[in-house]
Amino acid sequence: ARALRSVLVALVLLLPGWAGARALPPAVEAVTGALQLAGEGEMRWFGLKLYDAALWVDTADKAGVGKAIGAEHALVIRYARSIAGQRLVDTSLDEMRRLGERDEGRLARWRTLLEKALPSVEPGETLVGLYRPGGRGGLCHEVRSSAPLGASDLARAFFAANAIFYAAVWA
Prior knowledge:
Strand content: 25-35%
Largest sheet: 6 strands, antiparallel
Strand order of the largest sheet: 1-2-3-4-5-6
Order of helices and strands: HHEEHEHHEEEHH
Low-confidence stretches: 1-20, 167-171
Radius of gyration: 15 Å
Oligomer: single chain
């Protein structure tokens, strides 16, 4: 937890910017409780814009990144570039390994689930990750549900591995 907080603080300092991924899609609003915009940001890699992101948290739990990660929240990402679904899967799994996941059998099972859940994205398309208490999570690509993340341990690991997004958007 301490290492994750350190990474988040460092990333907050490295990833400033304004984002336009402000809207919480109606399909997500229909299944969530009251969520409020907690922050937004723009992700660039070596000057190239990758996406805009906005973090929506439970109105009762806007106390900080650590609290938001365990409570219901939605991360809205509007892509500025084409990214293959396989690249999103590989990057997510690499980040899970970097955060300490060493069970290659588990990672292989998660790869199968992520390959079903993470689509390729094009500029202007939106992907929403929704995390719900108890480790439930799912993805929505554009206006349709992409797939549930399946295993609760995968949902927790996926959202922890994508903490870079939280750091990029936390206000």
